[in-house]
Amino acid sequence: MPELPEVAALAEFLDGRMAALPIRRIDVASLSVLKTAEPPYTALVGRTVASVERIAQYLVIRTVPGDPAEAEPQIDLVIHLSRAGWIRWSESLAPTPPRPGGKGPIALRVHCGLPGEGFDVTEAGTQKRLAAWVVRDPNEVERIAGLGPDVLSLDRAAFGALLAGSGARIKTLLTDQRVLSGIGNAYSDEILHAARLSPFAIAKSLDDAAVDTLYDAVRSTLIDATERLAGLGVGKLKAEKRTGLKVHARVGLPCPVCGDKVREVSYADRSFQYCATCQTGGKVLADRRMSRLLK
Questions:
Q1: Are residues 158 and 287 in the same domain?
Q2: Which residues form the FPG-type domain (predicted)?
Q3: Buried-state track 149-181, b at ≥16 Cβ within 10 A, e below 16
């Protein structure tokens, strides 16, 4: 799933190419992706892109009227890439719209600027969770209205107060967008490894020193990743993200800090990775999926 650093990089990339350009056409290949009907997606056509921004893990393409006499001062296209969505920029988009309901990965196509310029919103796999909204204000999107504070907006005191009031496991808290927004599965693994904390530690049980360490790990992990991804083309972002990961998606490989084997805990349709030596005092956490298989 694209998380805060990737979405920030995508927003920067698109803003550098789309700002001040008109939206010429929008092709919808998957009607299920659109979660709103009013304003219609066709209302974006002819409008000018003012900016492309990030709200948590959402891309927000802000538009203004191409005609000053137009009644709608603001209409935004909001995109959440979910687990398998991505942006694919092109300067040679096919003039023929993608076939609605086709088996390909394209869900939405936005033409802007010169003929051929624009991007596809794609989604791999069979679990279709990609979502797009056309709204007058991003807060009309229920998920955005219910977001917790952006994790990088919190100072140490606010971060500590949030943890002190929660009995949740720290892994759960970091990835709960209603509590903190911006962190997903991959970077929460990296943050907890950097902070040398068990994913199962209870948030309110952390002492001041542990909270200090975790706060610093959150900021350093996300800021470092954001800076590494800045300025890269969309085709390079995924590979560059992987180069910075120390434990996430590295099951069975040696921990780059201590050399122990990176381990995994699986549950439902998700999993997380950790280093027992660095994070749990050598204790191997029970893998619930393996426990079920052994019964």
A1: yes
A2: 246-280
A3: eebbebeeeebbebbeebeeebbebbbebebbb
Residue 117: which residues within 8 A CB-CB, separation 6 or more? 17, 21, 90, 91, 93, 111
Residue type, 47: R
Residue for token pair 């470092």: 224
* Pairwise CA distance, residues 174 & 206, whole Å: 14
CATH of residue 93: 3.20.190.10
How many CA atoms lie within 13 Å of 166's alpha carbon, on the beta-carbon side?
Answer: 21
Domain that holds residue 168: 151-294
3-state secondary structure 249-260: CCCCCECCCCCC
pLDDT in tens, 214-253: 999 999 999 999 999 998 888 899 899 999 999 999 999 9
Question: Tens digit of pLDDT for each residue in 78-92?
Answer: 999 998 999 999 999
CB proximity list for 75: less than 8 A, separation 6 or greater: 39, 43, 44, 47, 63, 134, 135, 136
